[in-house]
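Protocol step 4 of 6: record predicted structures for both targets in the notebook before any analysis. Target 1:
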Amino acid sequence: MDWLPLLSTLTGAAIGIVATLIADRNRWKHEDVKEAHRLRLDIYTQYTTTVKVLGETLRALAKRGHPSDDERALALREAFRDSGIAIASERMWLIAPQPVVQASNSVFHCLRRICDGYADGTVVSSPEDRARWEARGKAAAEMRKLMREDLGVGPLTERHSPLVDDYSNPAAQ
């Protein structure tokens, strides 16, 4: 019996199977990387959106008249709690790399200081308020920079939000 044709067939089949397995494994790896990237993008978008909406809500509540200081503080703290920032923050802690987590946590604490300041009676656009918002702006810019690096997106050349002083200058908007 001639074994050469049988051996050639088996060798060819083994090479085909191995090549298919390698190609499938590479495809699965590529899909896993794409899915992880998509998940981080979703989490980053949720967090940055929550940060922006919460900031606008806190400022609006602080400007609004309230029957008492206690009711103002209660409204501000409820807005913070109901904003979804705690959930968005926990998702960051579970998925994001360490530098992004640290930066997002910094933004979280800046917003907490803004909320607490308003609850304690800080006037909107006072020097103390402006300093807190500027700290939040710098922390958010650093966070976005790290998020963009993690996502493989190039750096931005402009600031996302104007400086607090720029809100009174229409040319800066």
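Target 2:
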Amino acid sequence: MIKISVNAQKYISKLLSKKKKNTHIKIFVTNPGTEKAECNLEYLYGNDEDKKYKKFNFMDFNVYIKKSHVPFLRDSEIKLIKNNLNFELILRSPYIKKSVKKNFTSFEEKINYFIEVNINPFLHSHGGKIILIKVNNKKEVIIQFQGGCNGCSMVSSTLKNMVEKRLLENFPDLIAVRDITNHIPSLYSYY
């Protein structure tokens, strides 16, 4: 699936040794399947056994990848390159910009994939995102805003004019989108 060179693994292990115990790596894709796709690495604190992530074991650490991003990261490689006096991790991922046809096992997976590929890239530009909580028996999509969207004064407009509109247009069986976020404005709210 994803390959990490031995030197890169040693380098990552050295970086992680300076962090709290049980710190691992998370790899994610913003704008997957589009020309704007980018791959990112960040620290993941604690054991994330969330069913939305797939865990890959390496020498001294684990790498977590969101299951919906796995097809975009197949055949990816992380190598350690020496530039001048610095070391740099280089991630090569040949499929992040390619559209991935996916066989979904549930209606909920299909909706979650749509959110990740078609809605969250826009919200990421504002430092936010939505997560799918569930699709209930009434065919309502239950979501939660996070990051800069939580507490944003424009969230009701974003919900109606962008999120709900796109979901209802693309999934005619749905009847509504409901936000269960307890919106509390903070320093990180976009507006």
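Step 5 preliminary note on target 2. The chain has a mean pLDDT of 86. The longest helix spans residues 107-124.
Proceed to step 6 after PI sign-off.
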